Amino acid sequence: QVQLVESGGGLVQAGKSLTLSCAASGSIGSINVMSWYRQAPGKQHEWVATSSSSGVTNYADSVKGRFTISRDNAGKILSLQMHSLKPEDTALYFCTFVQPGAAHDYRGQGTQVTVSS
After folding, report:
1. Model confidence pLDDT, tens digit, residues 32-61
2. Within 13 Å of residue 55, how many CA atoms lie on the same side as its CB?
3. What's 55's DSSP letter?
């Protein structure tokens, strides 16, 4: 089992920055992929960014250049630095964890980000 707990959300003005964190615990193997997704009210889940245990990162076009995904040295804390926030970034942000051999993927409860104009 893997547990994911997000934190760092809040209310910010447009143009400001915010950093989210996702703490992973449990049966974490050395090979895995962690991602950030978001879901705005009334909309589908949207992939935001991914970080693999091998160091590869990828970003959605909507956040490229503004958001940075990273991990701590132990690979158990996933961060998302968000800069130049826009009202359209308002959503519930949650992290996911995928690793080979696991019975299923995991996701956290999420942290709310609200960007005011």
Report:
1. 999 999 999 899 999 999 999 999 999 999
2. 1
3. S
Residue type, 65: G
Which residue type occupies 71?
Answer: R
- For 113, the enclosing helix (H) or strand (E) is strand 111-116
Helix (H) or strand (E) holding 46: strand 46-52
- Per-residue pLDDT tens for 1-32? 899 999 999 999 999 999 999 999 999 888 99
CA atoms within 13 A on the CB side of 47: 10
Residues present in the chain in total? 117
* Token pair belonging to 14: 């447009």
Is the distance from CB of 13 to CB of 116 less than 8 angstroms?
yes
Q: Which of 91, 89, 107, 92 is nearest to 33 (CA)?
A: 107
Report DSSP letters for 56-86, one per residue. Answer: -EEE-TTTTTTEEEEE-TTS-EEEEEE-S--
